[in-house]
Automatic annotation (TrEMBL):
<keyword id="KW-0614">Plasmid</keyword>
<dbReference type="Pfam" id="PF05721">
    <property type="entry name" value="PhyH"/>
</dbReference>
<dbReference type="InterPro" id="IPR008775">
    <property type="entry name" value="Phytyl_CoA_dOase-like"/>
</dbReference>
<dbReference type="GO" id="GO:0051213">
    <property type="term" value="F:dioxygenase activity"/>
</dbReference>
<keyword id="KW-0223">Dioxygenase</keyword>
<keyword id="KW-0560">Oxidoreductase</keyword>
<protein>
    <submittedName>
        <fullName>Phytanoyl-CoA dioxygenase</fullName>
    </submittedName>
</protein>
Length: 268
């Protein structure tokens, strides 16, 4: 529908260097209002269709309160597929990673309901059986996100910390990682997002999100990309084994992850 999804985005060398140092970056005007409205409607419709969460928020655990999570919308709907396989977003991902191209790991819609709780501190790559740190997530709000709606919060440069990487998202990870980050000099960044602003963060940078204290759903679409030449490694925990089976079916340890669920989105 909207050509902006396949138009190149002018990324400066300063922006790439900022990302390499901090392992996150927020970029303004990546998408326009018309594009977000059109694709946001399709994404919302699919999330409502596929959502199976029927417990009231106050009866769920911390993870359940954090967001509704729907995976691989690109396999379920043609309009969502156009959005997820956007060359523009894939190009930004590849250039920030300093890779020759980007391949999709998987997508996920993260809808934090009105009154939804925090997303605890964590590092995404704990879940991924991927052999290098050339991984990156695009976090795309489908509306502006003021601080009271729970935008993403980053601990800039915290990818260098190894402690806490072994923790799944939980009350435990929130407490232990927060404690570890308190004794470091890493800057905490928790800022609102304008409409069209998109953030990108690496698999090992620690991040969280606040609660949604508004009466509206915080609608966010995310795409996880990896270096197009990413090799599958031997899983180090049960979650990585599950991820291999679900998101990289048929991929072989020691070889490039080139399955029907992991298309190349952008190549130089």
């Amino acid at each position: 529908m909207n050509k902006i999804l396949n138009q190149p985005y002018q990324l400066s060398e300063e922006a790439i260097e900022f990302y390499q140092k901090n392992r996150y970056i927020k970029l303004k005007n990546v998408l326009d209002a018309e594009t977000l409205a059109y694709y946001g409607e399709a994404i919302t419709k699919k999330v409502n269709e596929l959502n199976s969460q029927d417990k009231p928020i106050d009866e769920r655990d911390t993870y359940g309160k954090a967001f509704l999570q729907i995976f691989n919308l690109w396999c379920q709907d043609e309009v969502c597929k156009e959005f997820v396989l956007s060359k523009r977003l894939g190009q930004i991902a590849a250039e920030l990673m300093r890779a020759d191209g980007s391949r999709l790991y998987h997508d996920q819609a993260l809808f934090k309901e009105a009154g939804g709780g925090i997303t605890p501190w964590h590092a995404d790559q704990y879940y991924w059986p991927l052999s290098t740190d050339k991984t990156i997530t695009a976090w795309i709000p489908l509306q502006p996100v003021p601080v009271e709606m729970g935008p993403l919060e980053f601990s800039a440069g915290s990818h260098v910390i190894v402690e806490g990487r072994e923790l799944a998202i939980s009350d435990d990870s929130e407490q232990k990682i927060a404690q570890r980050l308190r004794v470091t000099d890493f800057k905490h960044v928790a800022e609102p997002y304008d409409l069209g602003e998109v953030s990108f963060h690496s698999g090992w940078v620690f991040h969280r999100a606040g609660a949604n204290n508004t009466d509206q759903v915080r609608k966010v679409m995310t795409m996880i990309y990896m270096d197009k030449d990413m090799i599958l490694k031997e899983p180090e925990n049960e979650n990585q084994r599950k991820d291999w089976e679900v998101w990289c079916p048929g991929a072989e340890i020691g070889k490039i992850i080139d399955t029907h669920l992991n298309p190349i989105v952008y190549s130089k």
